[in-house]
């Protein structure tokens, strides 16, 4: 099966007054048609910046280098274009049309002085040939699809008149307006209570099935990806340390960080299980470790872990892990 999105050896750096932040370090992954890929990691792991770079939404102080970024078979890395103007023109067409993002904080994303209807209509006017009246009707239909009552009335209201859950539904409606091939959901449930979280995740799943879209779910919560994702990539310190199917990650985790994340999950069926938080703090990406990014927090760390980053060890066609424990076991098995 051909990939819808393929990212090869992506690196993202940010210039700051303190120095260069190495936010994403040599990351490679792909997303297949109608697949849901979860990208999991704690704050500062690089998961959001990875996808912002793919969409061309990095801050001005960000710099991208990559061997290649392909979307639907076409190169979308800036170096593949004659100049920045041509690149930006192409990405403006792709964003909101073929590739859309559901942002973490709808109140930050929505314009507080524009009516919701105006903001919903904008992507339709930019990316379709529909008349204004057709765009208005489409916006009403979208609001109805995402479960917003009285959409005709709500079209004339402002963001502050909506609850947090309803604002997130508006963001989802805007993302789905042009039937995108890829939906990127950046921590879409972080600011919501548990009941609303479940409703939003169910809505994303329903819309994905109706449109036949692929989804990238960015989150720090393994519980979110458990019910939604086909494959899961674990990010730490700007790197993907493990990637596999949902079953491989949850039942056969190989990286100590993945194992640590799973030990932090509360299991209501096991009252005797104690939660085991991961000691220590994430690495400083101004001065990232030379070797494995998890070395200072890993109970199984060896000398080589500090000195050299391990290559990915394959356990199946879908399961890879970058850890010296697995690399050395593989070498010993060949002897």
TrEMBL record:
Keywords for the protein's UniProt record, in alphabetical order: ATP-binding, Cell membrane, Membrane, Nucleotide-binding, Transport
GO cellular component terms given for this protein: plasma membrane
Domain spans labelled ABC transporter: 5-262
MF terms in GO: ATP binding; ATP hydrolysis activity
Pfam families linked: ABC_tran, oligo_HPY
Membrane topology label: Peripheral membrane protein
Entry's localization field: Cell membrane
InterPro entries tied to this protein: AAA+_ATPase (IPR003593), ABC_Ni/Peptide_Import (IPR050388), ABC_transporter-like_ATP-bd (IPR003439), ABC_transporter-like_CS (IPR017871), Oligopep_ABC_C (IPR013563), P-loop_NTPase (IPR027417)
GO biological process: peptide transport
Family, per entry: Belongs to the ABC transporter superfamily.
Protein known as: ABC transporter ATP-binding protein
Lineage: Bacteria, Bacillati, Bacillota, Erysipelotrichia, Erysipelotrichales
């Amino acid at each position: 099966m051909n990939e819808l999105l393929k990212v090869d050896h992506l690196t993202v750096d940010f210039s700051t007054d303190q120095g260069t932040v190495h936010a994403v370090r040599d990351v490679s992954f792909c997303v297949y048609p109608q697949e849901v890929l979860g990208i999991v990691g704690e704050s500062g792991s690089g998961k959001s910046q990875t996808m912002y770079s793919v969409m061309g939404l990095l801050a001005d102080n960000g710099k991208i280098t990559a061997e290649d970024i392909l979307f639907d078979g076409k190169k979308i890395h800036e170096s593949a274009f004659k100049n920045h103007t041509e690149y930006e023109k192409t990405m403006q067409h792709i964003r909101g049309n073929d590739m859309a993002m559901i942002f973490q904080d709808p109140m930050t994303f929505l314009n507080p002085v524009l009516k919701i209807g105006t903001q919903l209509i904008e992507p339709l006017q930019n990316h379709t040939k529909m008349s204004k009246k057709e765009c208005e009707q489409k916006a009403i239909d979208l609001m109805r699809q995402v479960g917003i009552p009285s959409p005709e009335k709500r079209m004339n209201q402002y963001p502050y008149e909506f609850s947090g859950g309803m604002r997130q539904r508006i963001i989802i409606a805007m993302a789905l307006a042009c039937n995108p091939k890829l939906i990127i959901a950046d921590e879409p449930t972080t600011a919501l209570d548990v009941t609303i979280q479940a409703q939003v995740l169910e809505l994303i799943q329903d819309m994905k099935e109706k449109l036949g879209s692929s989804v990238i779910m960015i989150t720090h919560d393994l519980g979110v990806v458990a019910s939604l994702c086909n494959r899961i990539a674990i990010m730490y310190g700007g790197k993907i340390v493990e990637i596999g199917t949902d079953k491989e990650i949850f039942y056969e985790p190989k990286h100590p960080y993945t194992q640590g994340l799973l030990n932090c999950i509360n299991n209501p069926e096991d009252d005797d299980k104690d939660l085991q938080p991961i000691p220590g703090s994430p690495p400083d990406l101004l001065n990232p470790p030379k070797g494995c990014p998890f070395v200072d927090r890993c109970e199984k760390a060896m000398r080589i872990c500090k000195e050299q980053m391990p290559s990915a060890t394959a356990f199946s066609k879908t399961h890879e892990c970058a850890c010296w424990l697995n690399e050395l076991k593989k070498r010993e098995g060949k002897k």
